[in-house]
Every structure is written in C-alpha cells, then in structure tokens.
Amino acid sequence: MWCYRGGSISAEPRINDRIRVPEVRLVGPSGEQVGIVPLAKALELAQEYDLDLVEVAATARPPVCKLMDYGKFKYESAMKAREARKNQAHTVIKEMKLRPKIDPHDYDTKKGHVVRFLKQGDKVKITIMFRGREQSRPELGFRLLQRLASDVEELGFIESNPKQDGRNMIMVLGPHKKKTEAMAEAREAQAARKAERQGHAPDDHVDESPDAVKARADADAEAPAESSTEA
Questions:
Q1: Average pLDDT, the chain
Q2: What separation in angstroms does the CA of 16 have from each of 9, 51, 52, 66, 198?
C-alpha cells in the first residue's frame, strides 16, 4: 500500500533555480536565439540582465528557457485573460410562451420582446402552449409560429423548425447578428449617447442674469417689425 504525500501539480513554469536540467536552449530578452548553453551559464546571464530564467517549453530536448521579467509577464498575462473574459460572448437562449389564440395586443407585446432579444444577439425559443381542445388544432400553433418568424425575419431566422412536444409546439429563432457584434453596437450607442449629452449640455444653458435679460430685451426692441399683407 502506498500513500501520496506530494502537493498538487503546479501549472506555473519552473523559473531560475527550480530548473533542474544540465543544459537549456536559451532565448534572449528580445526573442533572439542564443542557442544551447549550460544551465549555470543561462542563470549567470539572467543575473547580468536582472531578469528571470523561465522554462517555456519543458517537453523539448533540451528544454527551452527564456530570459524575461517573470512578474511583469504574469501581470500582463492576467490582464489579457481578464480582457478576454470581459469580451467573451455567451450564447443565451431566451424563451417566449404564447397561446394559439393570443389576442393582437398580447401578440404585439410578445413580438416586441422577441425583437429585443434578437437585437441583443440572443436565440429565442418560442413555445406555443395548447390546452384542452386546442390540442386537436396544432395548425393554429404552426401558423402563429410562421407569422412570428415572418414578422422578425429582418432580425432572425428559423434555426429549429416548429415541432410538437407533448402539449406544446416549439420553434427556435436565431439572430442574424453575432452576440459579439450586438455587444459592440450597444457599447458604441451608449458612448454616442454619453458624448451627445456632454456636448449639448453647455448649449442648453440660458444666461438669466439681469444684464443678459436686458440685452435681449433691447435687441428685440431694435429689431424691425415684420410687415403683413392681407389678401
């Protein structure tokens, strides 16, 4: 019987004195190929440049090591990963439920939600719910789904055709725009609105000081009266 006493395997590369090989293929600070050198020589060069010796390809023979500022490298890598997560677009499936005999007002409201979802780059699962005798009239649900798909065809397309699922009929609409495009447009629109508010704020201000009011009154008094002509 054996017992594992070691810690978890680290995903961090080996650096400096943690590197345990007789020689390495060394890459300089600017990416230049130095060649195969003894480990002691590589560590000596790292000290001269005031940098770290970082193992970047441990499985190579000999391992590839690079001279770099490892702390700065980790920070920049973390910031890039954070920015990538921020801009990552997750596919979202929204759901909208309708009745086969929905009234016009409710239909317009539901359609408005579908339009908004598609503009955001999200998929929409449309569910027609049948009750009682409605289950014997599946064509009502099919026609309603076809009508909705036609009304929003500029924004989305039928990704999954209508199909019966027990008491329900389901159809999936996919957006023409990718999620990343919709997110980018939303950010641009928000920035434009902010810039417009900031740009027009000074123009909307009217000077109501006594001197300004008197100056406007004098200008109006001096302006020539418009002549009128009666037919």
A1: 82
A2: 18, 9, 6, 10, 53
